[in-house]
User: Fold this.
Amino acid sequence: MKISNHPLYKTIIKDAWSYTTGAVLLALLNISMFAVGGSPWGITTAFSNWGSWVFRSLGGEPEKWAFYAANKGNFNALMETSFFTNTQSLQNIGIIFGALLATLFASQFKVKKIKSWRQVLAAVLGGLLMGYGARLSFGCNIGAFFSGIGSFSLHGWVFGIFLLLGAWIGSKLLVRFFMT
Amino acid sequence: MAEYKLDCFGEACPLPLVKTQKKMETMNVGDVIVVEIDHSCAMKNIPDWARAAGHNVDIEEINDGEWEVIIEKTK
Amino acid sequence: MESKKRPARKRRNQVPIALGLLLLIIIAGIMLAGVNSMLAIYWIFGISFGIVLQKSRFCFTASLRDPVLTGSTTLTRAVLIAFMVATVGFGAIQFKALLSGVAGVPGNIFPVGLHTAIGAIMFGIGMVIAGGCASGTLMRVGEGFMQQWIAIVFFVVGSVWAARDFGWWSVNVIMPTSISDGVTKGFHLPTAFGWGFAFFGQLIILAAIFLFADWYEKKKLNKVPLEN
Assistant:
Protein backbone atom coordinates (compact mmCIF):
# COMPACT_ATOMS: atom_id res chain seq x y z
CA MET A 1 0.00 0.00 0.00
CA LYS A 2 1.30 3.42 -0.93
CA ILE A 3 1.82 5.75 1.97
CA SER A 4 -0.23 8.43 0.22
CA ASN A 5 -3.27 6.14 0.34
CA HIS A 6 -2.86 5.18 3.98
CA PRO A 7 -5.83 6.38 6.08
CA LEU A 8 -3.55 7.84 8.75
CA TYR A 9 -1.66 9.88 6.14
CA LYS A 10 -4.95 11.18 4.85
CA THR A 11 -6.43 12.25 8.20
CA ILE A 12 -3.28 13.63 9.79
CA ILE A 13 -1.16 14.94 6.92
CA LYS A 14 -3.39 15.47 3.91
CA ASP A 15 -6.74 16.65 5.23
CA ALA A 16 -7.38 19.71 7.37
CA TRP A 17 -7.84 19.17 11.10
CA SER A 18 -10.95 20.41 12.83
CA TYR A 19 -10.94 23.90 14.32
CA THR A 20 -11.51 22.40 17.76
CA THR A 21 -8.42 20.19 17.43
CA GLY A 22 -6.46 23.30 16.48
CA ALA A 23 -7.91 25.26 19.40
CA VAL A 24 -6.97 22.66 22.01
CA LEU A 25 -3.47 22.13 20.58
CA LEU A 26 -2.76 25.88 20.37
CA ALA A 27 -3.90 26.35 23.97
CA LEU A 28 -1.75 23.43 25.16
CA LEU A 29 1.26 24.81 23.28
CA ASN A 30 0.68 28.26 24.75
CA ILE A 31 0.42 26.81 28.27
CA SER A 32 3.61 24.78 27.71
CA MET A 33 5.43 27.87 26.47
CA PHE A 34 4.29 29.82 29.55
CA ALA A 35 5.45 26.98 31.83
CA VAL A 36 8.82 26.48 30.11
CA GLY A 37 9.75 30.02 29.08
CA GLY A 38 8.14 32.04 31.87
CA SER A 39 5.92 34.13 29.64
CA PRO A 40 3.12 33.15 27.26
CA TRP A 41 2.96 33.21 23.47
CA GLY A 42 3.51 36.59 21.77
CA ILE A 43 4.57 37.57 18.28
CA THR A 44 4.78 41.26 17.54
CA THR A 45 7.49 42.45 19.94
CA ALA A 46 9.93 40.63 17.67
CA PHE A 47 8.53 42.56 14.69
CA SER A 48 9.47 45.85 16.39
CA ASN A 49 12.93 44.48 17.00
CA TRP A 50 13.37 43.40 13.37
CA GLY A 51 12.53 46.91 12.24
CA SER A 52 14.72 48.48 14.89
CA TRP A 53 17.68 46.26 13.97
CA VAL A 54 17.42 47.44 10.40
CA PHE A 55 16.99 51.06 11.52
CA ARG A 56 20.04 50.72 13.76
CA SER A 57 22.18 49.24 11.00
CA LEU A 58 21.26 52.27 8.88
CA GLY A 59 22.65 54.55 11.58
CA GLY A 60 19.49 55.21 13.61
CA GLU A 61 19.42 55.12 17.38
CA PRO A 62 16.28 53.22 18.42
CA GLU A 63 17.79 52.53 21.84
CA LYS A 64 16.98 56.17 22.70
CA TRP A 65 13.24 55.61 22.18
CA ALA A 66 11.20 55.21 25.36
CA PHE A 67 9.99 51.83 24.11
CA TYR A 68 13.52 50.48 24.57
CA ALA A 69 15.08 52.93 27.01
CA ALA A 70 12.33 52.51 29.61
CA ASN A 71 11.89 48.75 29.33
CA LYS A 72 14.74 46.43 30.22
CA GLY A 73 13.30 43.37 28.46
CA ASN A 74 12.77 45.24 25.20
CA PHE A 75 16.20 46.83 25.49
CA ASN A 76 17.92 43.49 25.95
CA ALA A 77 16.09 42.04 22.95
CA LEU A 78 17.20 45.02 20.85
CA MET A 79 20.79 44.39 21.86
CA GLU A 80 20.61 40.76 20.77
CA THR A 81 20.63 42.22 17.27
CA SER A 82 20.11 38.96 15.41
CA PHE A 83 17.41 36.51 14.47
CA PHE A 84 19.49 33.65 15.74
CA THR A 85 19.93 34.75 19.32
CA ASN A 86 16.42 36.07 19.98
CA THR A 87 13.87 33.46 21.08
CA GLN A 88 10.75 35.22 19.78
CA SER A 89 12.33 35.87 16.39
CA LEU A 90 13.23 32.20 16.07
CA GLN A 91 9.72 31.26 17.09
CA ASN A 92 8.24 33.51 14.38
CA ILE A 93 10.54 32.12 11.70
CA GLY A 94 9.55 28.71 13.06
CA ILE A 95 5.86 29.47 12.47
CA ILE A 96 6.62 30.29 8.83
CA PHE A 97 8.64 27.10 8.34
CA GLY A 98 6.16 24.97 10.28
CA ALA A 99 3.34 26.14 8.01
CA LEU A 100 5.51 25.55 4.94
CA LEU A 101 6.37 22.05 6.17
CA ALA A 102 2.72 21.13 6.77
CA THR A 103 1.72 22.45 3.33
CA LEU A 104 4.50 20.53 1.58
CA PHE A 105 3.69 17.26 3.36
CA ALA A 106 0.13 17.64 2.08
CA SER A 107 1.49 18.40 -1.44
CA GLN A 108 -0.48 21.65 -1.39
CA PHE A 109 2.21 24.28 -1.70
CA LYS A 110 1.68 26.92 -4.33
CA VAL A 111 2.92 30.49 -4.69
CA LYS A 112 -0.24 32.57 -4.74
CA LYS A 113 0.41 35.49 -7.02
CA ILE A 114 -0.92 38.98 -6.58
CA LYS A 115 -3.78 39.75 -8.92
CA SER A 116 -4.44 43.43 -8.49
CA TRP A 117 -3.08 46.66 -7.07
CA ARG A 118 -5.91 46.59 -4.58
CA GLN A 119 -4.35 43.56 -2.92
CA VAL A 120 -1.03 45.40 -2.62
CA LEU A 121 -2.74 48.43 -1.12
CA ALA A 122 -4.68 46.21 1.29
CA ALA A 123 -1.50 44.48 2.42
CA VAL A 124 0.38 47.77 2.91
CA LEU A 125 -2.42 49.50 4.84
CA GLY A 126 -3.40 46.39 6.79
CA GLY A 127 0.19 45.66 7.73
CA LEU A 128 0.86 49.22 8.91
CA LEU A 129 -2.35 49.32 10.96
CA MET A 130 -1.63 45.99 12.62
CA GLY A 131 1.96 46.91 13.38
CA TYR A 132 1.12 50.29 14.89
CA GLY A 133 -1.97 49.04 16.71
CA ALA A 134 -0.20 46.10 18.31
CA ARG A 135 2.40 48.36 19.94
CA LEU A 136 -0.23 50.72 21.36
CA SER A 137 -2.27 47.95 22.93
CA PHE A 138 0.69 45.92 24.21
CA GLY A 139 0.20 42.97 21.92
CA CYS A 140 -1.60 41.49 18.95
CA ASN A 141 -4.32 38.89 18.62
CA ILE A 142 -1.90 36.47 20.30
CA GLY A 143 -0.04 38.48 22.95
CA ALA A 144 -2.92 40.72 24.01
CA PHE A 145 -6.02 38.71 23.07
CA PHE A 146 -5.18 35.01 23.50
CA SER A 147 -2.41 35.29 26.11
CA GLY A 148 -3.88 38.44 27.69
CA ILE A 149 -7.27 36.90 28.43
CA GLY A 150 -5.54 33.65 29.42
CA SER A 151 -3.49 35.66 31.93
CA PHE A 152 -6.71 37.12 33.43
CA SER A 153 -5.64 40.59 32.37
CA LEU A 154 -8.32 43.20 31.86
CA HIS A 155 -6.44 44.57 28.84
CA GLY A 156 -7.05 41.27 27.02
CA TRP A 157 -10.81 41.63 27.38
CA VAL A 158 -10.85 45.31 26.40
CA PHE A 159 -8.61 44.46 23.44
CA GLY A 160 -11.03 41.70 22.37
CA ILE A 161 -14.09 43.96 22.47
CA PHE A 162 -12.47 46.70 20.38
CA LEU A 163 -10.89 44.12 18.08
CA LEU A 164 -14.40 42.97 17.24
CA LEU A 165 -15.38 46.57 16.54
CA GLY A 166 -12.30 47.02 14.35
CA ALA A 167 -13.08 43.81 12.46
CA TRP A 168 -16.58 45.10 11.81
CA ILE A 169 -15.24 48.40 10.41
CA GLY A 170 -12.61 46.46 8.44
CA SER A 171 -15.26 44.20 6.90
CA LYS A 172 -17.24 47.20 5.69
CA LEU A 173 -14.11 48.79 4.20
CA LEU A 174 -13.03 45.51 2.62
CA VAL A 175 -16.31 44.91 0.82
CA ARG A 176 -16.55 48.56 -0.18
CA PHE A 177 -12.99 49.25 -1.40
CA PHE A 178 -10.97 46.09 -1.73
CA MET A 179 -13.27 43.74 -3.58
CA THR A 180 -12.29 43.53 -7.22
CA MET B 1 -29.24 24.67 -15.25
CA ALA B 2 -26.46 27.07 -15.89
CA GLU B 3 -22.90 26.61 -14.72
CA TYR B 4 -20.86 29.55 -13.53
CA LYS B 5 -17.16 29.87 -12.84
CA LEU B 6 -15.60 32.11 -10.23
CA ASP B 7 -11.85 32.70 -10.35
CA CYS B 8 -10.59 33.40 -6.85
CA PHE B 9 -6.95 32.42 -7.28
CA GLY B 10 -4.60 34.53 -5.21
CA GLU B 11 -7.35 35.93 -3.04
CA ALA B 12 -7.39 35.68 0.73
CA CYS B 13 -10.33 35.29 3.06
CA PRO B 14 -13.01 36.45 3.19
CA LEU B 15 -13.19 37.56 -0.46
CA PRO B 16 -13.72 34.12 -2.05
CA LEU B 17 -16.59 33.37 0.32
CA VAL B 18 -18.22 36.80 -0.01
CA LYS B 19 -17.99 36.64 -3.80
CA THR B 20 -19.48 33.14 -3.81
CA GLN B 21 -22.37 34.26 -1.63
CA LYS B 22 -23.02 37.29 -3.83
CA LYS B 23 -22.92 35.24 -7.02
CA MET B 24 -25.21 32.57 -5.60
CA GLU B 25 -27.85 35.11 -4.76
CA THR B 26 -28.20 35.86 -8.48
CA MET B 27 -28.41 32.19 -9.47
CA ASN B 28 -31.47 30.00 -9.87
CA VAL B 29 -32.16 26.80 -7.98
CA GLY B 30 -30.35 23.94 -9.73
CA ASP B 31 -27.58 26.17 -11.10
CA VAL B 32 -24.00 25.19 -10.36
CA ILE B 33 -21.08 27.40 -9.45
CA VAL B 34 -17.45 26.32 -9.66
CA VAL B 35 -15.24 28.39 -7.38
CA GLU B 36 -11.53 28.18 -8.13
CA ILE B 37 -9.37 28.81 -5.08
CA ASP B 38 -5.79 28.40 -3.93
CA HIS B 39 -6.36 29.58 -0.37
CA SER B 40 -6.34 26.67 2.04
CA CYS B 41 -8.69 28.45 4.44
CA ALA B 42 -11.28 29.18 1.75
CA MET B 43 -11.11 25.48 0.92
CA LYS B 44 -12.62 24.97 4.36
CA ASN B 45 -14.88 27.95 4.91
CA ILE B 46 -16.69 27.98 1.54
CA PRO B 47 -17.81 24.33 1.79
CA ASP B 48 -18.63 24.80 5.50
CA TRP B 49 -20.87 27.77 4.75
CA ALA B 50 -22.51 26.11 1.72
CA ARG B 51 -23.29 22.94 3.66
CA ALA B 52 -24.66 24.91 6.61
CA ALA B 53 -26.86 26.84 4.17
CA GLY B 54 -28.10 23.50 2.78
CA HIS B 55 -26.56 23.44 -0.70
CA ASN B 56 -24.88 20.45 -2.40
CA VAL B 57 -21.11 20.73 -2.23
CA ASP B 58 -18.20 18.91 -3.80
CA ILE B 59 -14.49 19.73 -3.48
CA GLU B 60 -11.86 18.70 -5.93
CA GLU B 61 -8.12 19.21 -5.65
CA ILE B 62 -7.21 20.06 -9.21
CA ASN B 63 -3.53 20.86 -8.72
CA ASP B 64 -0.95 21.35 -5.97
CA GLY B 65 -2.69 23.75 -3.63
CA GLU B 66 -5.52 24.49 -6.05
CA TRP B 67 -9.09 23.47 -5.51
CA GLU B 68 -12.45 23.70 -7.16
CA VAL B 69 -15.43 24.00 -4.88
CA ILE B 70 -18.52 22.95 -6.78
CA ILE B 71 -21.80 24.12 -5.31
CA GLU B 72 -25.27 23.33 -6.55
CA LYS B 73 -27.89 25.79 -5.40
CA THR B 74 -30.73 23.92 -3.78
CA LYS B 75 -32.93 26.65 -2.45
CA MET C 1 -21.37 18.35 -13.60
CA GLU C 2 -19.10 18.96 -16.52
CA SER C 3 -16.18 20.35 -14.60
CA LYS C 4 -15.69 17.00 -12.91
CA LYS C 5 -15.02 15.17 -16.14
CA ARG C 6 -12.04 17.29 -17.08
CA PRO C 7 -8.82 15.29 -16.79
CA ALA C 8 -6.81 16.19 -13.73
CA ARG C 9 -3.67 18.17 -14.39
CA LYS C 10 -0.34 16.54 -13.78
CA ARG C 11 0.54 16.90 -10.12
CA ARG C 12 3.85 16.82 -8.42
CA ASN C 13 4.48 15.00 -5.21
CA GLN C 14 5.87 17.54 -2.73
CA VAL C 15 6.60 15.04 0.05
CA PRO C 16 10.31 14.63 -0.89
CA ILE C 17 10.78 18.43 -0.56
CA ALA C 18 8.95 18.24 2.76
CA LEU C 19 11.35 15.55 4.00
CA GLY C 20 14.30 17.69 2.95
CA LEU C 21 12.87 20.69 4.80
CA LEU C 22 12.22 18.56 7.88
CA LEU C 23 15.88 17.53 7.84
CA LEU C 24 16.97 21.18 7.63
CA ILE C 25 14.64 22.10 10.50
CA ILE C 26 16.13 19.35 12.67
CA ILE C 27 19.71 20.36 11.79
CA ALA C 28 18.89 24.00 12.62
CA GLY C 29 17.40 22.85 15.93
CA ILE C 30 20.54 20.89 16.84
CA MET C 31 22.75 23.83 15.96
CA LEU C 32 20.61 26.21 18.03
CA ALA C 33 20.67 23.77 20.95
CA GLY C 34 24.46 23.94 20.78
CA VAL C 35 24.32 27.69 21.38
CA ASN C 36 21.56 27.78 23.97
CA SER C 37 18.84 25.22 24.70
CA MET C 38 16.19 27.95 25.03
CA LEU C 39 16.76 28.96 21.40
CA ALA C 40 16.10 25.40 20.23
CA ILE C 41 13.00 25.16 22.45
CA TYR C 42 11.48 28.32 20.96
CA TRP C 43 12.39 27.13 17.48
CA ILE C 44 10.48 23.88 18.11
CA PHE C 45 7.57 25.82 19.62
CA GLY C 46 7.44 27.99 16.50
CA ILE C 47 7.48 25.00 14.18
CA SER C 48 4.69 23.36 16.21
CA PHE C 49 2.57 26.52 16.23
CA GLY C 50 3.04 26.81 12.46
CA ILE C 51 2.02 23.22 11.83
CA VAL C 52 -1.07 23.45 14.04
CA LEU C 53 -2.14 26.82 12.59
CA GLN C 54 -1.78 25.55 9.03
CA LYS C 55 -3.33 22.12 9.52
CA SER C 56 -6.37 23.40 11.38
CA ARG C 57 -6.64 26.58 9.24
CA PHE C 58 -6.95 28.39 12.55
CA CYS C 59 -7.71 32.04 11.99
CA PHE C 60 -8.26 34.61 14.72
CA THR C 61 -9.24 37.14 12.06
CA ALA C 62 -12.11 34.96 10.84
CA SER C 63 -13.25 34.34 14.40
CA LEU C 64 -14.02 38.06 14.75
CA ARG C 65 -14.84 38.91 11.15
CA ASP C 66 -17.13 36.07 10.09
CA PRO C 67 -19.85 36.73 12.68
CA VAL C 68 -20.38 40.19 11.19
CA LEU C 69 -19.62 39.32 7.57
CA THR C 70 -21.11 35.88 6.97
CA GLY C 71 -22.87 34.96 10.21
CA SER C 72 -20.61 31.97 10.79
CA THR C 73 -19.28 31.50 14.32
CA THR C 74 -17.49 28.16 13.89
CA LEU C 75 -14.07 29.74 14.42
CA THR C 76 -15.36 32.07 17.11
CA ARG C 77 -16.39 29.03 19.12
CA ALA C 78 -13.03 27.34 18.48
CA VAL C 79 -11.21 30.44 19.75
CA LEU C 80 -13.40 30.40 22.88
CA ILE C 81 -12.44 26.76 23.46
CA ALA C 82 -8.77 27.72 23.16
CA PHE C 83 -9.35 30.53 25.68
CA MET C 84 -11.08 28.21 28.13
CA VAL C 85 -8.25 25.65 27.99
CA ALA C 86 -5.68 28.46 28.32
CA THR C 87 -7.58 29.94 31.28
CA VAL C 88 -7.28 26.67 33.20
CA GLY C 89 -3.59 26.19 32.36
CA PHE C 90 -2.54 29.81 32.86
CA GLY C 91 -4.53 29.93 36.11
CA ALA C 92 -2.61 26.91 37.41
CA ILE C 93 0.76 28.47 36.48
CA GLN C 94 -0.10 31.83 38.05
CA PHE C 95 -1.55 30.27 41.18
CA LYS C 96 1.54 28.09 41.59
CA ALA C 97 3.75 31.18 41.26
CA LEU C 98 1.60 32.91 43.89
CA LEU C 99 1.94 29.99 46.32
CA SER C 100 5.71 29.84 45.83
CA GLY C 101 5.86 33.49 46.88
CA VAL C 102 7.35 34.95 43.71
CA ALA C 103 6.92 38.72 43.54
CA GLY C 104 4.53 39.80 40.77
CA VAL C 105 2.12 37.68 38.74
CA PRO C 106 3.59 36.03 35.63
CA GLY C 107 1.79 36.39 32.31
CA ASN C 108 0.81 39.04 29.79
CA ILE C 109 -0.68 41.61 32.14
CA PHE C 110 -0.40 45.12 30.76
CA PRO C 111 -1.94 48.55 31.34
CA VAL C 112 -5.46 49.06 30.06
CA GLY C 113 -6.81 52.38 28.86
CA LEU C 114 -7.68 54.44 25.82
CA HIS C 115 -4.56 53.14 24.04
CA THR C 116 -5.88 49.57 24.29
CA ALA C 117 -9.07 50.56 22.47
CA ILE C 118 -7.28 52.62 19.79
CA GLY C 119 -4.70 49.90 19.17
CA ALA C 120 -7.32 47.15 19.02
CA ILE C 121 -9.49 49.03 16.52
CA MET C 122 -6.45 49.70 14.31
CA PHE C 123 -5.42 46.07 14.58
CA GLY C 124 -8.94 44.83 13.85
CA ILE C 125 -9.26 46.93 10.70
CA GLY C 126 -5.76 45.95 9.58
CA MET C 127 -6.17 42.22 10.02
CA VAL C 128 -9.41 42.09 8.02
CA ILE C 129 -8.02 44.20 5.17
CA ALA C 130 -4.68 42.36 5.00
CA GLY C 131 -6.36 38.97 5.27
CA GLY C 132 -4.60 37.75 8.38
CA CYS C 133 -3.55 38.66 11.90
CA ALA C 134 -0.06 38.22 13.36
CA SER C 135 -0.17 34.43 13.50
CA GLY C 136 -2.23 34.17 10.32
CA THR C 137 0.15 36.39 8.35
CA LEU C 138 3.18 34.32 9.38
CA MET C 139 1.33 31.11 8.55
CA ARG C 140 0.33 32.39 5.11
CA VAL C 141 3.84 33.64 4.40
CA GLY C 142 4.86 29.99 4.75
CA GLU C 143 1.97 28.86 2.56
CA GLY C 144 3.27 31.02 -0.29
CA PHE C 145 0.82 33.91 -0.22
CA MET C 146 2.48 36.87 -1.97
CA GLN C 147 -0.02 39.34 -0.54
CA GLN C 148 1.11 38.33 2.94
CA TRP C 149 4.77 38.73 2.00
CA ILE C 150 4.01 42.41 1.49
CA ALA C 151 1.80 42.57 4.59
CA ILE C 152 4.53 41.28 6.90
CA VAL C 153 7.05 43.86 5.66
CA PHE C 154 4.63 46.66 6.46
CA PHE C 155 3.63 44.97 9.70
CA VAL C 156 7.29 45.34 10.72
CA VAL C 157 7.38 48.95 9.47
CA GLY C 158 4.23 49.75 11.50
CA SER C 159 5.70 48.10 14.59
CA VAL C 160 8.91 50.08 14.48
CA TRP C 161 7.03 53.29 13.68
CA ALA C 162 4.91 52.83 16.81
CA ALA C 163 7.97 51.90 18.86
CA ARG C 164 9.46 55.25 17.83
CA ASP C 165 6.28 57.09 18.90
CA PHE C 166 5.83 55.04 22.05
CA GLY C 167 7.26 57.72 24.33
CA TRP C 168 4.62 60.21 23.18
CA TRP C 169 1.82 57.69 23.69
CA SER C 170 3.14 56.78 27.15
CA VAL C 171 3.13 60.35 28.36
CA ASN C 172 -0.04 61.58 26.66
CA VAL C 173 -2.35 58.58 26.52
CA ILE C 174 -1.19 55.50 28.40
CA MET C 175 -0.32 57.13 31.73
CA PRO C 176 -3.25 59.61 31.87
CA THR C 177 -5.93 57.09 30.83
CA SER C 178 -4.79 53.81 32.34
CA ILE C 179 -6.96 52.52 35.13
CA SER C 180 -3.88 50.71 36.39
CA ASP C 181 -0.90 52.80 37.33
CA GLY C 182 2.28 53.36 35.36
CA VAL C 183 3.35 52.16 31.95
CA THR C 184 4.14 48.61 32.90
CA LYS C 185 1.61 47.69 35.53
CA GLY C 186 -1.60 46.07 34.42
CA PHE C 187 -4.95 45.09 35.87
CA HIS C 188 -5.00 41.47 36.98
CA LEU C 189 -8.55 40.28 37.56
CA PRO C 190 -7.84 37.69 40.31
CA THR C 191 -5.74 40.22 42.25
CA ALA C 192 -8.63 42.68 42.12
CA PHE C 193 -11.62 40.37 42.59
CA GLY C 194 -10.20 37.24 44.23
CA TRP C 195 -9.10 34.00 42.62
CA GLY C 196 -12.30 31.99 42.88
CA PHE C 197 -14.49 34.75 41.51
CA ALA C 198 -12.11 35.71 38.66
CA PHE C 199 -11.20 32.15 37.63
CA PHE C 200 -14.70 30.68 37.54
CA GLY C 201 -16.20 33.99 36.45
CA GLN C 202 -13.93 34.05 33.38
CA LEU C 203 -14.77 30.44 32.50
CA ILE C 204 -18.50 31.12 32.86
CA ILE C 205 -18.31 34.26 30.71
CA LEU C 206 -16.36 32.41 28.00
CA ALA C 207 -18.91 29.58 28.08
CA ALA C 208 -21.78 32.06 27.91
CA ILE C 209 -20.26 33.75 24.83
CA PHE C 210 -19.83 30.27 23.32
CA LEU C 211 -23.54 29.52 23.74
CA PHE C 212 -24.49 32.95 22.42
CA ALA C 213 -22.27 32.41 19.34
CA ASP C 214 -23.93 29.08 18.68
CA TRP C 215 -27.40 30.61 18.91
CA TYR C 216 -26.33 33.59 16.77
CA GLU C 217 -25.07 31.40 13.92
CA LYS C 218 -28.25 29.33 13.84
CA LYS C 219 -30.32 32.48 13.75
CA LYS C 220 -28.20 34.04 10.97
CA LEU C 221 -27.94 30.99 8.73
CA ASN C 222 -31.63 30.23 8.84
CA LYS C 223 -32.24 33.49 7.07
CA VAL C 224 -32.03 32.70 3.36
CA PRO C 225 -31.02 34.44 1.18
CA LEU C 226 -28.09 35.97 3.00
CA GLU C 227 -28.20 39.66 3.49
CA ASN C 228 -24.68 40.50 2.31
